[in-house]
Amino acid sequence: MANILDGLKLSKQIKQEIKEEVAQYVNKSFRPPHLSAVLVGNNGASVTYVDNKIKDCHAVGFRSSLVKLPGNINENELLQEIKKLNEDKDLDGFIVQLPLPDHIDQEKIIMAIDPEKDVDGFHPQNFGKMALEMESFLPATPYGIMTMLKRYNVPTQGKNVVVIGRSRIVGRPMSILMSRKGYPGDATVTLTHSKTQNLQDFTKNADIVITALGVPNFLKGSMIKKGAVIIDVGITRIDDSTKERGFYLAGDVDYNDVSEKASWITPVPGGVGPMTRAMLLKNTLIAYKKNING
Ligand SMILES: Nc1nc2c(c(=O)[nH]1)N[C@@H](CN(C=O)c1ccc(C(=O)N[C@@H](CCC(=O)O)C(=O)O)cc1)CN2
Ligand SMILES: [Mg+2]
C-alpha cells in the first residue's frame, strides 16, 4: 500500500511558516505583502479558487484585493486593468485566474503582466528564466509538486519521470523543473501528450508519473511499475446531487487500484491542489521581500 504525499498537511505547515515570516516584518513596522487576483466572469471552479486565494491571504496576514470583471469584458478593457495593477506601487504581485473567456487572447493578457509582479510565473520572461535555471517565479502547481517531493525526501536524481499533459500551467513547466540540475530534479524526463503513442510503454517504465490530464480515473495500476511515485494533478468535478456541493472531485488516477502498487501517491482532493495555493503565497512573499529590501 502506498504512502500518502499529504499536500493538505504540508500546505498548512508552509502557510504557518509564511505567517510567521510576515509577522516578523509587520512587527518591524513594514506593511504586509499585498496580492491581487483578477477574476473574469463567473466560472464555478474559478470563483472557488479565487475565493480560496483571498482567504489564504487573510490567513497568513497578507493584504489582498479582488478585481472582479464581467465575462463579456473586451480584451482592451482587460489590458487596461492589467496596466493599473502593473503601476500600483502598493501591490507586490497579482494573478489573472485562468481559463479566460474564449474571446480573450490569453497569451496577450499574460504578456501584459509585469514579470516582476507575475507571481503565477506564467510570463515568457519568467518561463524562459525557469528553463535556463535562473532565479524566477515558478508556476505554483509545479513549484508545489517540487516542494512536496523535497519535503518528503522522494529521490529524483537519475529517475525516469513521465509527465502526462503538456499544458503551460502544469505539464510543460513540470517537465522543465524535473530536468533541471539539483534536487529535486536531475531526472530523465519524458513529456507525453495527446499525440503520444503507446503511453503505457512510458508509464510502465517510470519511477515517477505526474499526470495532469483532467480525465478521471485514467491511470490504472496496470499502467505503472511497482514502487512508482504517483502525482495526480487532475481535478474534475463530477455532478452528484447526493453531495453537499452537488459534485465530487475526481483525479486522473484510479486511486484504489494504483495505491496497491505505488510507493507514494497524492490524493485528490488534499494533494497537489492545496500545495498550489501555498506556493502562490510563497511567490508573493518573495516578490514582497524584493520590494521591501529594494
Ligand atoms: N492564474 C491561475 N489560474 C489557474 C491556476 C493557477 O495556478 N493560476 N491553476 C488552476 C486552478 N488553481 C489555482 O488557480 C487551483 C486548483 C485547485 C486547487 C485546490 O486547492 N484543489 C483542492 C480542491 C478544491 C475544491 O474543493 O474545489 C484539492 O485538490 O484538494 C487550488 C488551486 C487553473 N487556473
Ligand atoms: Mg494536454
TrEMBL record:
Pathway named in the protein's UniProt entry: One-carbon metabolism; tetrahydrofolate interconversion
The UniProt record lists the EC number as: 1.5.1.5, 3.5.4.9
Name of the featured protein: Bifunctional protein FolD
- GO molecular function terms attached to this record: methenyltetrahydrofolate cyclohydrolase activity; methylenetetrahydrofolate dehydrogenase (NADP+) activity
Belongs to which family? Answer: Belongs to the tetrahydrofolate dehydrogenase/cyclohydrolase family.
InterPro entries in the cross-refs: Aminoacid_DH-like_N_sf, NAD(P)-bd_dom_sf, THF_DH/CycHdrlase, THF_DH/CycHdrlase_cat_dom, THF_DH/CycHdrlase_CS, THF_DH/CycHdrlase_NAD-bd_dom
Source organism per UniProt: Apibacter adventoris
Q: Which gene encodes it?
A: folD
An example of a Pfam family matching this protein is THF_DHG_CYH
Task: Please provide one cellular component term from the Gene Ontology annotations of this protein.
Answer: cytosol
Q: How does it assemble?
A: Homodimer.
Task: Give the residues the record marks as binding NADP(+).
Answer: G165, R166, S167, I235
